[in-house]
Write a structure and sequence with these properties.
The chain is of the alpha/beta class. The chain has helices spanning about 15-30, 30-35, 50-55, 70-80, 100-110, 140-150, 170-175, 195-205, 235-255, 265-285, 290-300, 310-325, 325-340, and strands at about 5-15, 40-45, 65, 85-90, 95, 115-125, 130-135, 170, 210-220. Strands 1, 2, 3, 4, 5, 6, 7, 8 and 9 form a nine-stranded mixed sheet that branches. Helix 8 packs parallel to helix 9 (about 235-255). The N and C termini lie far apart (about 55 Å).
Length: about 350
Amino acid sequence: MSEPITVSVIIDTFEQGPFVAAAVASALAQRAVREGQGEVIVVDDGSTDRTPEILAGFASAIQVIRQPNGGQAAALNRGIAGARGTWLAFLDGDDEWGPEYLDAALSALESSPDCDAGFSGVLTVDAAGRPLGQDPSPLDWTMLEALLRESDALGAGRVSWMPPTSGLCVRRSLLAVLVEGETAGPVPAQYRIAADGWLQLCIASHARRVVPVGGRHVRLRVHGANRWTGADEFSAPIAQARASLYAELGRSAESLASKALRDISGLRRALRANAGEFGVWAAILAGQRVRALGLALVWRPAPWVTSTLHRAFRRLQLVLATVVPVGVYRHLRALWRGRHADAGTPP
């Protein structure tokens, strides 16, 4: 009789041939997987590079599901459908885990019977694996740990950072209850990229308890090919894509609100604030300064900006961005961030 599966590792990958072997190896190195309490499911979302050949080299150590390209949502749904574990741990095909990650995650997740999800801070690295930084900062992580002890902090929109796919662990039954009728899976198909945003939304609205995973065991790879993390924040297409993403998440929040375990009106305001801020930047970078100024004047910061002075500063900062040259604004913001990063002053 086979051992029960405690955790299912779901790796989604598309055209990540240079990195996917390291991602899979980092999952196989976890003690739960080595001892038969975990399984590794890799969903190849139609890669045309060397990914199929590389995955074949792992033989029966992993379960490979290959499908036509459908985007991250389709890949995650396929992996979730085939998972057997109590817990689902997600890993993108270009990221890695440290060898102690699942031990730390499972210890945190199983510390309380009402825990439904957990997440980890990350170390960012470049394409060659060289360290770039920490996300969030140590001070922000300490504040986040305190907020997670409040059951309503996520729904109230008071949490300013949520982890990427590779730092998320979720109870499988939490996602199962969101599948209705004959839908293909819990993640809506429109999330071809940034499906982790929808997972974060579900955690915020439905998880009874969310815990931080101690340590920074997740190595998030920042490179040009991942189309999001590696992109220039002052790129017009990326600004518009992020504005559209937050608007879509806001619509998803509306549909989830009636089923949520808590009031998520604060979270919905936070999503509107993020969509609005990136909308201002999309207009600026498209040369639509008058429209950008109009949007900035009616913009309101997210609920996680709690200080009246800080809220006023954020509004003034956005208005300023609409009237000065982008290069000047970038220089001023870089100076501000460099001067206040160590003190934890919000940018």
